[in-house]
Amino acid sequence: MVSLRVPTDFPIATVAGVDVVLESVDVLPDGLEIRWHGVPGDATERMDRDWETAMGAWTERRDERGPDGAGAPPTMPGTLLARIQAHLTDDVGTEYTPRTGRAAGSDSAWESAWRFTPAPPAEARHLRLDLAVDGERVTGCDLP
């Protein structure tokens, strides 16, 4: 794995009051992995508290009514990070395709990781990362 230089705490956007920053871009044997995270603050704390309250109520319903009567559990607030999309280009015209991704989860409530294939070809000298929220481009950076 090779980690590309990314600007430190590169701001992507503010989504639902949560500041989101680019964390890393790593070249893997079969592709690239891009990570970003929500910066802890008032918005994340409020959403986490609201989620914990909703989860507690859902757990009570499940205990009272059984799994089928409780309805779906509340969605983790960090899933809002999935509203961000990445688009990669390089100086040789490689087509990068998103393959897998995640936004939020156990022990990674405000983290997001997305994998793209293929790995950049040896002849590529510059990689460009453009980021969008809900399909609208918000920022980008060059990754030599």
Percent of residues in helices:
10-25%
Cα gyration radius (Å):
18 Å
Note the main sheet: 6 strands, antiparallel
Q: Which structural class best describes the helix and strand composition?
A: alpha+beta
Low-confidence stretches: none
Compute the separation of the termini in Å: 16 Å
Enumerate how many helices there are, as a single number. Answer: 1
* Oligomer type: single chain
Return the string of H and E elements: EEEEHEEEEE
Overview of this protein structure:
- It is a single chain.
- This protein is an alpha+beta fold.
- The protein has one helix spanning 42-65, and strands at residues 2-4, 10-15, 18-28, 31-38, 84-90, 97-103, 111-117, 127-133, 136-143.
- Strands 1, 2, 3, 4, 6 and 7 form a six-stranded antiparallel β-sheet that branches. It has a three-stranded antiparallel β-sheet with strand order 5-8-9, with no helix packed on it.
- Strand 8 and strand 9 (136-143) form a beta hairpin.
- The longest helix has 24 residues, at 42-65.
- It is elongated.
- It starts with a strand and ends with a strand.
- The model has no long low-confidence stretch (mean pLDDT 92).
Short description:
Helix content is 17%, strand content 44%. The chain is α+β, with helices and mostly antiparallel strands and 144 residues long.
